[in-house]
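Input for the complex:
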Amino acid sequence: GDSVTQMEGPVTLSEEAFLTINCTYTATGYPSLFWYVQYPGEGLQLLLKATKADDKGSNKGFEATYRKETTSFHLEKGSVQVSDSAVYFCALRKGAQKLVFGQGTRLTINP
Amino acid sequence: DVKVTQSSRYLVKRTGEKVFLECVQDMDHENMFWYRQDPGLGLRLIYFSYDVKMKEKGDIPEGYSVSREKKERFSLILESASTNQTSMYLCASIPGNNQPQHFGDGTRLSIL
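Predicted:
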């Protein structure tokens, strides 16, 4: 079946560091890909999405490019802030409405 | 803004109790979802509904049921709560296909 694999956390970085959170997927066909973020004590919020190969999603300084050849959708940010501390989830959706999530990556940014 | 409201942020119940988790959305969305979130496992889909009185099993429906009597409300029911159902429960809704899901803030449920 379809699945999403994220890099193991937790990830701890200093402010202004470069961030990469790896995400790879397994699916037949052409899924849509998403990154969701969960801040402490809150539900999930959509961070960015891409619906077809080579699309780049971006929001709040975060970017991810849909790479069909490597079945990847890695999340990047050039300079992280303390306020980026959260849990990040990669997810895919194919056709039907339900999402398949990765296990989540906890990110902590130290000042 | 879309608002998905879960009735409780924290809930403590006892083994064997019948537990109701309520979710309401205010944007007339057709599709609603219940997930549970556990460390290291991400979010797993329990049930979803694409219309009033319609429901579909997700990946882990055992021990749960749902009710969708009105479009705006989607209830998750633990028929006889067990300790392995201690978890964070998240409700979500979308207006239709190819739209992002909107999530509630979650209910952290502890079964003692």
